[in-house]
């Protein structure tokens, strides 16, 4: 299981027992997992690269080597945020070793379908979008365009000049906490931005949030974690070969309703043609494993059950 930014391996602490000891938590023990949760290099306790070029493809190569050195020749992989892209790259790189890929966020390639929402809500129904898709995508200007504009300022900074803001954050624990916690507010549910306390304790405990912040603070890795954006996005979007490549391993997708951008099944299937499981989740946002560990664990287990039949 692979995390993203500004998360860490700690996001998975609550879901790990549900996968490794499901019976003790009221879940079926049909599938019991060994769970590996590595840190992306440059995040927390994982050493940062000393040279340029550590992007998602390089990370996928490192994590594949990690799995083989741990003795796993075939395995399932799961991720959201950067973890989604890293796991996708692993599935592209070594498909014979990846038994299945489960995602709760998708980096979607440009296609006919990704442009169709611009035609309007009525055309959405005509083109086969479900009522749930339409609910999550429209009004399009508000839920997609304005949402991206509101939430992508950090991305432009980190994809162009990560060290500038990073040095300031490394110098101030309060500044670092504010920068990270804002994401755990608005990315959990966009409506939380209107709340005085950011709704932080509606899904998380302050202790859990502070553990994640302290992983960055004690290791001084906020700068190297932000450089990951420049490594992956600094040259532009859709300029890397892997971005246009499809994934041909069994794939499962959890569509959480408060994710930053909803990805309808039609969009996901363009990139992942072997999509065998697509689930509209009852609740939850960007930090799925941290917010709703039981829901995500149940969907992973459902996907694996289907993948084992392939």
Textual characterization of the structure:
- It is found in: Endoplasmic reticulum membrane; Microsome membrane.
- InterPro entries: AB_hydrolase_1, AB_hydrolase_fold, Epox_hydrolase-like, Epoxide_hydrolase.
- Belongs to the peptidase S33 family.
- The chain is built from 15 helices and four strands.
- By secondary structure, the chain is α/β, with parallel strands linked by helices.
- It has one domain (9-110, 152-307): Rossmann fold (3-Layer(aba) Sandwich).
- The chain has a four-stranded parallel β-sheet with strand order 1-2-3-4, sandwiched between helices.
- Strand 1, helix 3 (82-93) and strand 2 form a beta-alpha-beta unit.
- Helix 10 packs across helix 11 (206-219).
- The longest helix is centred in the C-terminal third of the chain and has 15 residues, at 293-307.
- The two termini are 22 Å apart.
- The model has no long low-confidence stretch (mean pLDDT 94).
């Amino acid at each position: 299981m692979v995390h993203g930014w500004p998360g860490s391996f700690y996001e998975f602490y609550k879901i790990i027992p549900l996968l490794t000891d499901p019976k003790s938590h009221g879940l079926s023990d049909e599938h019991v997992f060994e769970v590996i949760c590595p840190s992306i290099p440059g995040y927390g306790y994982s050493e940062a690269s000393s040279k340029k070029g550590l992007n998602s493809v390089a990370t996928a190569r490192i994590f594949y080597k990690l799995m083989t050195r741990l003795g796993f020749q075939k395995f399932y992989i799961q991720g959201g945020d950067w973890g989604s892209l890293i796991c996708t790259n692993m599935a592209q790189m070594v498909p014979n070793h990846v038994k299945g890929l489960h995602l709760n966020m998708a980096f979607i390639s440009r296609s006919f379908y990704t442009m169709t929402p611009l035609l309007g809500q009525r055309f959405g129904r005509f083109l086969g979008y479900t009522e749930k898709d339409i609910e999550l995508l429209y009004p399009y200007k508000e839920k997609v365009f304005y949402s991206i504009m509101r939430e992508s300022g950090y991305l432009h900074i980190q994809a162009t000049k990560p060290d500038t803001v990073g040095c300031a954050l490394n110098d101030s624990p309060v500044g670092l906490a504010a920068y990270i916690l804002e994401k755990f507010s608005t990315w959990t549910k966009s409506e939380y931005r209107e709340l005085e306390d950011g709704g932080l304790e509606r899904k998380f405990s302050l202790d859990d949030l502070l553990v994640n912040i302290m992983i960055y603070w004690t290791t001084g890795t906020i700068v190297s974690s932000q450089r990951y954006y420049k490594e992956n996005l600094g040259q532009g979007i859709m300029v890397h070969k892997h971005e246009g490549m499809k994934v041909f391993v069994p794939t499962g997708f959890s569509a959480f309703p408060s994710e930053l951008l909803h990805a309808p099944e039609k969009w996901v299937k363009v990139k992942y043609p072997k999509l065998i499981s697509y689930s509209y989740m009852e609740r939850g946002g960007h930090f799925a494993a941290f917010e709703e560990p039981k829901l995500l664990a149940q969907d992973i287990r459902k996907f694996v059950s289907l993948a084992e039949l392939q």
